[in-house]
Fold these 2 entries.
Entry 1:
Amino acid sequence: MIDGHIHIERGDYTLEWIEQFVNKAVEMEFDEIRLLEHCYIFEEFMPMYDSVCAHSEYVDDWFRRKAGKHRISEYLGLIEEAREQKYPVKIKFGLEICYFKEREAFIREMTKDKEFDFLLGSIHFVDGFAFDHKPEHWIGMDVDTIYRRYFEDSVSLAKK
Ligand SMILES: [Zn+2]
């Protein structure tokens, strides 16, 4: 059994923290866990969010609280350390990347030649709109348009 989507962002980049996930996985009889970080955790990805921060004061505040806590090299260092351990469950390490169609080249550049086991594309913004934060943000939005654009972006993401 696999748990394929576990964020590690609530702890430090230490083996002690990773081992808590390993222990839980053993307890729950998982064979494999896939640990991942949101790309906005990393300083290097912050420029990708300029337009969504400019689009909304709420998103700008959220971003200032959450983003840029680490450098990618710190995460890669943790991954390397964890791979040297003999854990009783298989661990894969990945990155959850906010998909912005116009940033494909940037994303490719940021992720090439890195030792991630997997990359996961997610759509968290549609035309700059952060649709999954608060219900009241939908007031005055055209729901059909947002959904249509969400599916268009999903199709172009899937083609990558
Ligand atoms: Zn996630």
Entry 2:
Amino acid sequence: MEEIISLKNVDYSYYGKIPALTNITLSINKGEMFSVIGLNGSGKSTLLHIINALIYPDSGIVQFDGNPVNEKTMSDKSFGVQFRQRMGYIFQNPDIQLFCPTVFDELLFGPLQVNLPLEIARERAEQTIKYLGIDYLRERPVYMLSGGEKKKVAIASILTMNPDVLLVDEPLSSLDPKTQTFFMELLLELNRAGKTIIFTTHQLDLIEHLQPRVVVLSDDHTIRKTGTASEILNDEELLISVNLIHEHVHKHGNEEHRHYHSHYVFHKH
Ligand SMILES: Nc1ncnc2c1ncn2[C@@H]1O[C@H](COP(=O)(O)OP(=O)(O)OP(=O)(O)O)[C@@H](O)[C@H]1O
Ligand SMILES: [Mg+2]
């Protein structure tokens, strides 16, 4: 398999004093479904920011398709534009991502930004807005949308770019159950079509459903383990140690029950 993204010994701390990633080494292949799991604050979003060159590591090396990604290479116009064209980022919080006057403008923005002709940009925006079922919102200003609607617009605005690599931070946050299912199926479909998909989550059911390769971050911002979905889901000890499942004690009448609680996978009585 051909590698598309690699990180070697990457460290990052905010303002030089709040550690967020420590000694991260990983390699992601073209066309892979890959996920980053860990508790709140373990460094998942920071890792996606690094992969997307929104921030640069304090030390260590990041590569995209065999080329180094750093301030210098990103300031090279042809590399920078190509990089942005090939990688799309759906943020955890859609508010940071949306800034155009209307929903339709938002969908046009990406394609125009990478110099696609207006006709093609419009065509893509039309297709995507219908595909995601948000055509009725097209003239709405984004501040007049619900959280879930904003998330859908954020997803749409990235899909119009037709990126090779899709970074998705907490794919299901603020979506209703029906839209969650739709979006999970969409991610599977995009992956089947050859896209590399990298997402973060602390929901183990998403790992079970999408069956990605998984990297587990621990509270100290290091990698605890990398493995297939089933290698990770079956490693109860690991999941307890990084607090992704916890022992849960409750009573049925006078009888005390203990079981591991992870919302889905290990919820056995
Ligand atoms: N803008 C920031 N300024 C300072 N510290 C930050 C900032 N963003 C994140 N951090 C810190 O960096 C660490 C990693 O945060 P990050 O947002 O990457 O975690 P996460 O795994 O995505 O968490 P969550 O599940 O809550 O989204 C945390 O300790 C966090 O407090
Ligand atoms: Mg996060």
